Task: inverse folding
């Protein structure tokens, strides 16, 4: 380390020698940086997994354009869309096909714990709208009260889920009906529900008699080959006379949902703040360590000033210290952060994990913010007046 | 052509404080240091010795009068010029001011590294050599915390001399040392100064040092009152 820094800075690694001179203080400083890193990792991990969970149900379907109610910020909230708009949209030359998508939560009594399945009602003869991982099983839904179940749903035992096949279906009671699951897919518990389920639109309407086939939650459209999505969206906006409807490309709808969850919903805001607080804690810790270190060595620094060392030298010493703290604090932070995220993922069944991009961005952030703290800490150096040495 | 005088100060006045507390510390100080000479500056406490040293050492800005150091005028010089000039000086302070986290060798290297373009190996060699000259060959890897007061001050001497300064400024370098160590350090300064053709200005209260001086200046209340040439 000492050699490396010597080569890097082209001088004695004074920062390193100074930091490591007091072992206990150095260890405490590293622990502080690691702690801030863990804080950021956990918050970021939760935020990322929230993002992944938000985008997850969009994978179950395929479409180019989605029409939703004006207040529908995600697949699962907002009002209905009149089916007549589907027929209107089909009049556009580039729109090839359309499907109404129904969505509601179905409670499932699992004995010790009730779970809630986010349930989608789809047209069982339109596999083009269904994600590839489910499309093959779609015909199974043509049977009344058939379901395709999320095998990752919370509360559903692994072997129980694995046993579900068309030959060995799983029957269960929900909404005072007997549903029969003939197949499964990998959904995954989100922050909103415990798992997912797909049924036909007919089954959906039997589960929810109050809902009408004339008013699905969303309308999905697919376009012909070579059609420009944005152009068609613009055309549909003028074609459909209800200005309150949200007509967006399917991809935009997913991204809008993500942004909404992260910036408008309390959970998203809380974890965003968590990241900010982690960064601030790290900033304060590094600043505190470096400025005490500068204050403790004012006499030595004044001596160096008298000897003819300029401001750039002192800045580079403090940057060196910031780099050492950032790099060496990051390593335990990464290890502990990964362990905590893995453990939390196991307990909550949320997709919580350390990712490479997260590690890289936190590392860069740590080094950059350490350097900023260091630059602030050097302001104390002005107090080192070599004329006071004699 | 280089001057025979490495330093010429003329009509030097200096004040501390402003307004009501403004107080003049130096009055019309004139002084020259001949290249290679060993000059001792004496005087009672508060007479202005340190003030003279800090002005010559480019550690304070000259307020009034002229100081010509190594053919540069210090009055009105920029901070960058002063820093550059300081690199050609050697300082020894009353306290050793060594860096506690650096070994003896590393401390000495700091005196050399201020000059750009010294390779690590050269710096290492020069530092070891300088420590050998002050009799600390067997202490090169020691941290200051493990050295005695006299040894620390000798490391400080090595640090001041390793860069071959043109002028060495020392302010009571022996004040914190016992008699033997003090004599040792002064002998060292005198010997090494002579060997390297270095000019030395040394502030001291210590009468034993006077025998070694080429010139003795006495300050009183900010004025030079006597100047005695020897040898
Ligand atoms: N930074 C300062 N601010 C205000 N007054 C100062 C300052 N430094 C020195 N003085 C004053 O200037 C005068 C000369 O001080 P100086 O330190 O040069 O004396 P000295 O001869 O070195 O004394 P000593 O032998 O005690 O070190 C003293 O009256 C002192 O009080
Ligand atoms: Mg003094």
Result:
């Amino acid at each position: 380390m000492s050699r490396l820094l010597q080569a890097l800075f082209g001088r004695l690694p004074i920062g390193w020698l100074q930091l490591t001179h007091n072992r206990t203080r150095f260890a405490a400083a590293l622990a502080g940086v690691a702690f801030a890193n863990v804080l950021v990792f956990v918050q970021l991990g939760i935020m990322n997994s929230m993002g992944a969970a938000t985008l997850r149900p969009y994978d179950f379907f395929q479409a180019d354009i989605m029409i939703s109610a004006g207040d529908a910020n995600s697949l699962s909230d907002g009002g209905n869309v009149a089916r007549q708009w589907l027929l209107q949209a089909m009049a556009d030359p580039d729109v090839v096909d359309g499907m109404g998508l129904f969505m509601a939560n179905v409670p499932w009594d699992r004995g010790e714990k009730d779970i809630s399945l986010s349930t989608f009602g789809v047209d069982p003869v339109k596999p083009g709208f269904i994600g590839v991982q489910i499309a093959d099983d779609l015909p199974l839904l043509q049977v009344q009260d058939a379901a395709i179940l999320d095998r990752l749903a919370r509360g559903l035992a692994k072997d129980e889920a694995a046993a579900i096949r068309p030959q060995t279906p799983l029957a269960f009671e929900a909404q005072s009906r007997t549903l029969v699951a003939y197949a499964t897919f990998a959904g995954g518990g989100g922050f909103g529900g415990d798992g997912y389920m797909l049924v036909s639109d007919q089954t959906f309407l039997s589960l929810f008699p109050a809902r009408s086939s004339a008013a699905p939650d969303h309308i999905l459209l697919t376009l012909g080959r070579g059609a420009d999505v944005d152009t068609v969206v613009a055309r549909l906006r003028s074609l459909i006379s209800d200005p309150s409807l949200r007509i967006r490309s399917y991809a935009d709808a997913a991204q809008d949902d993500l942004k909404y969850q992260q910036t408008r919903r309390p959970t998203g805001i809380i974890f965003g703040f968590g990241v900010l607080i982690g960064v601030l804690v790290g900033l304060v810790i590094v600043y505190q360590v470096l400025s005490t270190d500068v204050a403790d060595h004012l006499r030595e620094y004044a001596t160096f000033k008298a000897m003819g060392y300029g401001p750039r030298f002192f800045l580079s010493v403090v940057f060196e210290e910031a780099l050492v703290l950032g790099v060496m604090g990051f390593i335990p932070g990464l290890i502990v952060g990964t362990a905590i995220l893995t453990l939390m993922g196991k307990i909550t069944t949320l997709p919580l994990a350390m990712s490479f991009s997260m590690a890289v961005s936190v590392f860069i952030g740590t080094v950059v913010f350490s350097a900023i703290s260091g630059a602030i800490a050097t302001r104390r150096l002005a107090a080192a007046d070599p004329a006071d040495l004699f | 052509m280089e001057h025979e005088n490495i330093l010429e100060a003329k009509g030097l006045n200096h004040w501390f404080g402003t307004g009501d507390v403004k107080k003049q510390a130096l009055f019309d100080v004139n002084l020259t240091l001949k290249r290679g000479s060993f000059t001792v500056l004496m005087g009672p406490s508060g007479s202005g010795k340190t003030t003279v040293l800090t002005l010559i050492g480019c550690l304070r800005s000259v307020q009034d009068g002229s100081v010509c150091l190594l053919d540069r005028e210090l009055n009105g010089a920029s901070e960058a010029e002063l820093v550059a000039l300081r690199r050609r000086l050697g300082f020894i302070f009353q306290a050793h001011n060594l860096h506690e986290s650096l070994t003896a060798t590393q401390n000495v290297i700091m005196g050399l590294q201020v000059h750009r373009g010294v390779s690590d190996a050269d710096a290492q060699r020069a530092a070891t050599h300088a420590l050998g000259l002050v009799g600390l060959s067997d202490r090169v890897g020691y941290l200051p915390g493990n050295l005695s007061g006299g040894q620390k001050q000798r490391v400080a001497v090595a640090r001041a001399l390793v860069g071959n300064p043109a002028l060495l400024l020392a302010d009571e370098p022996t004040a914190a040392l016992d008699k033997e160590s003090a004599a040792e350090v002064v002998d060292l300064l005198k010997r090494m100064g002579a060997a390297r053709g270095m000019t030395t200005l040394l502030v001291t209260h210590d009468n034993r040092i006077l025998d070694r001086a080429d010139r003795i200046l006495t300050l009183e209340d900010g004025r030079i009152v006597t100047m005695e040439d020897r040898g």
